[in-house]
Amino acid sequence: MQKNNVNRSVWLTILTIIMVVAPFTISGYKVDLLTMLMVNVILAVSFRLITTTGGWSLAHVPMMGAGAYATALISGKLGIPFWFSMPLAGLAAGLTGLAISYPLVRTKDFSFFVASFAAGEAIRLCWIRFKVPFGGHRGLGVPIPELIPGVPALDFGEAIPYYFLTLVVTIICLSLMYRLDNSRVGDSMKAVQSQEALAKSVGINADGYKMLAFFIGSFFAGIAGVLLAHRLWAIEPHQFGFTATLYLLVWVVFGGSHTFAGPVIGVVILTILGEVLRPLADWVPMVYGIIIILTLIFLPDGLESLPRRLGSSAGKIWKFRISFGD
Amino acid sequence: MEFLWQTILNGLMISSFYALIAVGLSLVFGVMHIVNFAHGEFYMIGAYTVWVLFALLHWPFFIAVGAAIVIVGLLGLVSERLIFRHAHGNVLSGFIMSVGLVFILQVAVVEIWGVGKMKPVPAAFPQVLDIGGVSTSWQRFIVLPATIILLWALWYFLAKFRVGRGLRASAQDPEAAALYGISPKKSAAIAMLLGSAMAGAAGAFMAPIMSVHPYMGHSVVWTAFVVVIVGGAGNIKGTILAALIFGFLTTIITTLLDSTIANLVNTLVMLVILAIRPQGVASHAEE
C-alpha cells in the first residue's frame, strides 16, 4: 500500500512537470487544445460521478452550458469579477442539476434516458427562445478574466496564462472529486447503483444520494462550462447540443466508468485520435461510432479493464518464463 | 368554427405522423429493450430513399415509398444482426450502441450526398384538398390514411399471425415464450424489421413536406421519445393515444404561440407525467 502511494506520487510529479513545461514548447493552437482537453476532463470526471449512482444523464452537457451561461450573465452583464462568478456559476449549474434530478430519480432505463435528454433540451430551448437575457441563437459574449479585478494589464487573454488558470482549477476540481469518490459518501453512491434494494434496507436514502450526485456533478460540469466560456469569449446554445453529449458518452464508455481514471483515459486518447485524424475531420464521428460499438461488444468495461484482462494472460507468460528459467 | 375544424384537421395529421414514427420505436423497445436512438436516422434514410427514387429517378411516388419501407426495414434487420444483438438486453449498452450507429449513418449520408445542398422533393400530390371550407394539400393529408392503413396492418399482423402473436409473447415474457418454441432472437429480428420499416415509412411520407437533410432525424426522434414515454414504453395502444395528445397539443400551441414554445410545453408535460405517473398514461394493467 505504502509503495503504491509512493509510485502514484512519482507519476503525479512527472505528470505535473510535463503539464507545466509543455505549453512553452508547443504552438499556441496546441496550448488551447490542451486547455480544452482539461475542460473536457473535468466534464467527463464529473459525468462519471453521476454515473456511479447509475444515472447516465443525457443532460450533462446542458449543465455545463448552464455554468457557461451563468458566468456570461454574472461576469458579463453584472460585471462581477471572475473569481466570484466562477463558483457562483458552478452553484447555478448545480442547482439546475438538482432541479432536474427531482423527476429524473423517479425514472428508470428508457424513461431515464428520454427524460434526462428532454430536460437538457428544454433548458437549451429556453436559451434559444428567451432572447432576454440569453441572447437567442446568437448567444452571449463573455469577458476576459482578470487576475486582479480592475487591472486589465494582468488578464488571462493569452493562451498560456489561461492554460495555467485552467490547470490550477482542473487540479482543484479533480482532487475534490477524487476525495469524494473515495469517501463514505462516494461509497454510498456506488452502493445505490449496484445494490439499490440492499442500500435502501440499511437506511441509505437512495433518491437523496442520486440527487446529491446530480448536484455535485452538475456543479463541476458548470465549472468546466465557466472555463470553456471565458476562453472562447462567446457562447451559443448550439455548442451544448446533443452532439456534444454523444461525444461525452463515447469518452466515458470508451475509457470505462468503474475507476476514477477511466473517463480521463477515454477523453485523452480520443482527443489525440481526433487530432491525428484532423485531415479526415468529416469522418471522425463515424470512427467514434465504430469505436464505441466495438468497445461495447468486445470490451464492455472500457479501456480501463484492458490491463486487468491482459494482466491475467501476461501473468501466465511471466510464470511460464520463470519456470522455464528453472 | 372554421378555425376549430382547421385545428382538428392539422392535429389529426400531426398525430398520425407522431404515431407512425413512435409506434416503431415502442415496438423495438417492448421486444428488444433497445432505446434505439438511431430510429431518427432510419427515418432520415427513408426520406433520402424517396428523394433519390422519386425526385431524381422519377419513379412513381408510392413505389418509392414502398422501396423506402423495404430498404429501411432491411437496414434495421442488419443492424440488429450486427450490433444490437450483442447488447443482450442491457438497456445502457443498447442505447449507446444506437448512438454509435447514429454517428455512422449520419457521416455515411453526408459523405455520399453532401450536407449543404438542398434536397428538394416535389409534391407528388400538389392539389389542394377542400373539406367544407377547411383546406390542406393532398400531400399533407395523405399521411393520415397511410398511417391508419399501416397501423391496421401492424395490428393485424400482431393479432392474427402466429409470428405476430409470438412477438407479443416475447415482449411480455421472453423465457415463457422460449419454452413454447418462440425464439427470442427471431422475435427481436422481426421487431427490428417492423419498427425500422415504420420509421422508413414516416420518412418517406414526410420527404416532400419536410426539408431533407442528414440531421433531420434529431428533432423527430426526440418527439417520438416523448410520445413513447407518455404512452408507456412498449405499449402500442398507449403510444397511439399519446401521439394524439401531443399532436393536438403541438398544433394548438403552434397556432396560438410558436413552435419553440410548443416543444417546451411538450417536454414539461412529459416531465410532469413522469414525476407523477412513471409507467405512462395508459398503464400496463390491460396486459
CATH topology of chain B: ABC transporter involved in vitamin B12 uptake, BtuC
Strand order of the largest sheet of chain A: 1-2
Number of helical segments with 4 or more residues of chain A: 14
Strand portion of chain B, in percent?
Answer: under 5%
Name the largest protein-protein interface in this structure.
A-B, 39 and 42 residues
- Determine the oligomeric state from the structure: heterodimer
Q: Cα-atom Rg of chain B, whole angstroms?
A: 19 Å
Mean pLDDT of chain A: 84
The CATH architecture of chain B can be given as Orthogonal Bundle
Secondary structure blueprint with pairings:
The complex is a heterodimer of chains A (326) and B (287).
Chain A: H1 2-25, H2 28-51, H3 60-77, H4 82-104, H5 109-129, H6 131-134, E1 140-141, H7 159-181, H8 184-194, H9 196-201, H10 206-232, E2 234-235, H11 242-255, H12 261-276, H13 284-298, H14 306-325
Antiparallel strand pairs in A: 1-2
Chain B: H1 2-32, H2 39-56, H3 61-82, H4 91-113, E1 128-131, E2 134-137, H5 138-141, H6 143-160, H7 162-172, H8 174-179, H9 184-206, H10 217-231, H11 236-256, H12 259-276
Antiparallel strand pairs in B: 1-2
Description:
The complex is a heterodimer of chains A (326) and B (287). Chain A is mostly helical and 326 residues long. Chain A has two domains: 213 residues, no CATH class; 85 residues, no CATH class. Chain A is built from 14 helices and two strands; from the N terminus they run ααααααβααααβαααα. Chain A has a two-stranded antiparallel ribbon with strand order 1-2. In chain A, α2 packs across α11, α3 packs parallel to α5 and α4 runs antiparallel to α10. Chain A is globular. With 287 residues, chain B is mostly helical. Chain B has a single domain, classed as ABC transporter involved in vitamin B12 uptake, BtuC (Orthogonal Bundle). Chain B is 73% helix and 3% strand. Chain B has a two-stranded antiparallel ribbon. In chain B, β1 and β2 form a beta hairpin. The longest helix of chain B is centred in the N-terminal third of the chain and has 31 residues. Chain B is globular and about 60 Å long.
